Amino acid sequence: MKHHRELLICLLCSLGISAFAAPSRADSELDSPVGDKWALVIGISEFKNSSISQLKYAAKDAGDFADYLVKEAHFAPDHVKVLRNDQATQKHIMSELGSKWLPRAAAPNDMVVIFISSHGSPADMDVQGVNYIITNDSDPEDLYTTAIEMQDLVSTISRRVHSKRLVVFLDTCHSGAANAGAKGIKRTTNIDLEKVPLGNGQIVISSSQSDQVSWELKDRPNGAFTHCLLDVLRHQEDSTIPQVFQNLQDSVQQTVLRERGALQTPVLKSNWKGKQVSLKVMPVNPHPGLTEDSTEIALVPSNPANPGTPVTVVSVPSTGPATNSVTSPPAVIERPPVGQGHVEKSGLPDSIAILPFPAVSKVNIQAPPPNVKVLWGQLKSPQELVGLPNKFAEGIFRGMREKFGSHVLGPQSVNAGLAEAHLNALNTTRWSERDWQQAAEALQSKYLVSATIDEVDWATSMMANKYTMVVSARLVSGDTGRVISEVNSLRIKKAPFQGDAGGARQYLENTVGPSAAKDIAGTFTTALHKAGVTRD
Fold it and tell me: Does residue 181 have a pLDDT over 60?
């Protein structure tokens, strides 16, 4: 038999076929010993926005988990960074995740642990089904630019942190403000992990299913999930994370069921294909912690008023009667596919980054004619349009995310990457090709989208208010820094009879802007399909 096996191996080798399948690079990296361990621990009980309900124990959850890592799980004290309450702003969290700390500290063979106890927003709160983690400074009315998108959190770590091992614990949910002890700012559902794409070597554990509440305990100062997690970790000292999860799921479910009469069932999503490890694994190649840099990295503002760009207000004479809503065809300029389509030049992944948009360039507000009463919405000042570029950017983001999934980067990772590269995206009209390439390298994105609101006009008549919005946008190749597709002076005209009853600003943000964004997203989607980009 041994002789036959040797003959078979010789035959396979002579045909150029290996008798034993070699492990993939990713698997071999995960099978190697853990070099060092790092953790970012976040707990937010207090929120700047008074409409967000405060939490009793989220900040304490973070402190207790960090204490466990240092005192019992062999994490070096300077390898565990804790952000609580007013320290846990969107900017600070994304800076530590995406530029300032973890990307400079964690090596490929290391393990990174992320723990977050806060509110989370469910998919059913967002028009495109996006989950957000609520930070200390989040605005419930503008989660796109003030909260952290769940997909963006994991993808930022995947792109910017070198470690091949990532473990995320989420004690978050968006639920029962009406129920004492339940985490949330509005009664609804929790984060849906099925919407979160994971790379190899990544595990995410959420405190409850997407249709459940995550509870804080009545008589113990912790969230139910965190309390049970620490208890199970202490009783299963050397168990791997999936082994810990098996008992964690049962423990949380039984604890909440007996105390609240409700179901809370933790969820695990994993794409870990190599050797599983314990949180208490001893690092084989520990390094000193990263010295705090005295130079603060300033992120590009995600809600720019762009004070450097003047806003022009022009009084214009009254015009004729209102017309029906009209969308003019975009002036589209198509360029030949860069590098013959899908050819890799710089090794950049097929990611798409929507850059921050500058303030509205020009605002024309017509004074109401004599004896004409303004119906419904009225635009009185350019200051009312400060948030319009963000909503316009969000519309393009949503349209392209629908077509290309997680290939489209969220705004927080874009801002962090631009800040690290010291690039001001609010002035891309002056960028050179090298600036575009530098931005692409910082963002690890082969395609970049930039847009401007060139002009907003508001007028009124006896019949209806009249809105005009003129926008331009460019899709740029990160490989070459050259424009692939361009929309010039797309003019959207709308004259609603009652559609602007909520106010001029809301009508521009919710109707006119999204109409323009839809056209631009469709144009660029066609160009990207020609270049060979498909949904993940």
Answer: no
